[in-house]
Design goal:
Length: 447
């Protein structure tokens, strides 16, 4: 994929390159940090079952639709959607770009926590068997505004550096090796945590479904998480799709992306929640879950510090590949619509994001009094992006691909294998009726 100052001529080197880049956008803090604590706070299976249903019905088809619209329109999210759907859809693209930008303001804060834990693990300062000490460690980090801003700054700078230099050579290669390592490490940690007494209770919590725990809010959260974890509704797949060569099979690639990202989330759940039960912690403990449980799981293992360091390096890579995709959407827009050069566009984002992400970072300490609807700025931004803007973005794409531009969508869906469940009829039904209906019903009932 070329990364210079044009968008229209950029093409992925291969189908695998596209799948890896999209999967590495999808697999990030959403799967590993957010999924376990959201499953924990939303009743386990009551959250997971709707999440899986959303992913394998509307999620996959929306990934296909975004890629298709991107490839047909060739350009930034604004440019591509305007070209395929007219000026109104250009505005939809603009909202998607804004959404990606807002996500970056809070995503970078958690990215900063990863950097901090990575640094601590390098000096052997993370692994510990005492949940109290570990939650104090986490709270000390989160409540110290200056330290938070500092680590966020490092993370944001790394993200901008990658985008400024070009995504192709750096991040794609790193992701190719470190993503598999992340999976291997997670499986290793899962085996270890399932051996701990009491951990099976966690498996029951995760996988035994109980209707009573399902509410409008859990379903809205599950839908929001589906969009978040598949990087939908924020222009990512439109932008990445626009770099696709004309003969890459979109349906097949999209299934891979969805499959990999769901696996990562489920594995992360199985890695964290059983350990939470084994250590007698509260699964609803919230944002600190991954940071508090992982160091405990490694305790009493040979090479504990090395394993912890490897885990946080992988988490950092998972996070930064997603941040890069978010920033790429904004930078592609600035290049395409404002005629900026890649480096200047990235620098502009770096400065403005630093200011806004600092405000997010302080929402855990000096700005914790700022509340919207009972939520901190951080939670509120995530709520609006994941549960409202991303589904609305998805809804607009569904209306475009399923109705206004169905011939374009159909043409882009070449190479559907005859025995695939994703027949053209199914895709049409899902994108034109099921996806809009589900999104509307869930949004209305959830809000
Ligand atoms: N899917 C990413 C994750 O799970 C987050 C993300 C959301 C990335 C939206 C791009 C767009 O961490």
């Amino acid at each position: 994929m070329a990364s210079e100052n044009t968008i229209a001529d950029t093409v992925w080197s291969s189908r695998l390159g596209f799948i890896l880049a999209s999967a590495s956008s999808a697999i990030g803090l959403g799967a590993i940090w957010k999924f376990p604590f959201w499953a924990g706070t939303n009743g386990g299976a009551a959250f997971i079952v709707p999440f899986l249903i959303f992913t394998f019905t509307i999620g996959i088809v929306l990934v296909m639709a975004e890629c298709a619209m991107g490839r047909a329109g060739r350009g930034s999210a604004v440019h591509a959607l305007k070209r395929v759907g007219g000026p109104v859809f250009g505005i939809v693209g603009g909202i998607a770009v804004l959404n990606a930008y807002i996500i970056l303001t809070y995503y970078s804060v958690i990215g900063g926590w990863c950097v901090s834990y990575m640094a601590d693990s390098f000096i052997g300062n993370v692994v510990n068997g005492d949940p109290k000490i570990l939650s104090n460690h986490f709270n000390a980090l989160v409540s110290n505004g200056t330290v938070n801003v500092f680590f966020m700054f490092l993370y944001l700078t790394a993200t901008c550096a990658v985008v400024a230099l070009g995504v192709e050579k750096g991040i794609e290669k790193v992701a190719k090796y470190l993503m598999p390592l992340l999976f291997v490490l997670m499986i290793f940690i899962i085996i270890r945590s399932l051996m701990m007494p009491g951990s099976w209770e966690g498996m029951q919590f995760l996988f035994s479904f109980n209707w009573e725990q399902v509410s409008g809010a859990t379903i809205l959260n599950a839908m929001g998480f589906t969009f978040f974890s598949l990087s939908l509704g924020a222009g990512i797949m439109v932008t990445y799709g626009s770099y696709l060569s004309s003969h890459t099979d979109i349906p097949g690639s999209s299934v891979w992306v969805a499959f990999l990202s769901t696996q990562a989330a489920l594995l992360a759940g199985v890695m964290i929640i059983p350990a939470v039960f084994a250590f007698g912690m509260d699964p609803a403990a919230g944002t600190g879950l991954v940071f508090i449980t992982i160091p405990m799981i490694f305790e009493h293992m040979p090479l504990a510090d090395v394993l912890a360091a490897a885990f946080y390096v992988c988490l950092f890579i998972a996070a930064i590949t997603s941040s890069v995709s978010l920033l790429e959407v904004v930078v592609a827009y600035l290049i395409n619509e404002w005629g900026m050069r890649r480096r200047s566009a990235t620098a502009l984002c770096w400065i403005t994001l630093f200011i806004l992400a600092s405000i997010q970072a302080l929402s855990f300490s000096s700005l914790s009094w700022v509340e919207f609807n009972g939520m901190s700025l951080f939670d509120f931004s995530d709520y609006v992006c994941s549960n409202i803007l991303m589904p609305l973005g998805g809804l607009s794409i569904a209306l475009l691909a399923g109705w206004k531009a169905w011939p374009v969508m159909k043409e882009q869906m070449l190479a559907i294998r005859p025995h695939s469940v994703f027949t053209i009829g199914w895709i049409r039904l899902t994108i034109s009726v099921l996806a809009p209906a589900l999104v509307i019903v869930v949004l209305i009932s959830g809000i």
